[in-house]
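Postdoc handover notes: sequence design on the structure in folder B. Input tokens:
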């Protein structure tokens, strides 16, 4: 836990690589990614008390990404590679992933933003195997190919915007 904001950047070594181990970053203020964070087969948890998470560079690579805390999360580098997304936070989520993505379970089940918007852009199929709850917020789903396949959970939002290419199956 960092007593204020934190930047995953360069201090002799560029970025952060864990060799497949889990990473948890908890901050009191905004968490910034200016360089790559590579957990490989490990999971990454972001938990800022305020300020959210802002990616201004690098690539985020993880088997699972768990979003907690308060503030907007912006992870829009086209090279991000996350397999499963989950979380319970107070803030909006905007995430770009290079290939397929599943809203599933990473300790936390599903994704809840307490009434804030969610935008998910993927390079392949977007799967909803658990609930996606934006409450009074809007949800935008934008797969480049492969569409969206809801295999479980519920989708809750004030508005739903479907973009991209493929078959969209929402049950």
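Designed sequence:
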């Amino acid at each position: 836990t960092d007593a204020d904001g934190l930047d995953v950047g360069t201090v002799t070594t560029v970025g952060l690589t864990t060799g497949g181990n889990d990473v948890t970053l908890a901050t009191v203020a905004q968490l910034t990614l200016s360089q790559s964070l590579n957990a490989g087969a490990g999971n990454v948890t972001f938990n800022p008390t305020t300020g959210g998470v802002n990616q201004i560079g690098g690539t985020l690579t993880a088997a699972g990404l768990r979003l907690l805390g308060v503030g907007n999360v912006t992870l829009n580098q086209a090279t991000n590679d996350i397999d499963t997304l989950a979380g319970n936070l107070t803030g909006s989520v905007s995430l770009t992933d290079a290939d397929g993505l599943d809203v599933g379970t990473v300790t936390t089940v599903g994704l809840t933003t307490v009434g804030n918007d969610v935008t998910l852009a993927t390079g392949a199929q977007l799967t909803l195997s658990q609930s996606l709850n934006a409450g009074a917020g809007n949800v935008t789903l934008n797969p480049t190919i492969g569409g969206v396949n809801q295999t479980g959970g519920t989708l809750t939002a004030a508005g739903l915007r479907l973009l991209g290419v493929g078959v969209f199956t929402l049950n």
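Context for whoever picks this up: The CA atoms of residues 36 and 58 lie 4 Å apart. Don't rerun without checking with the PI first.
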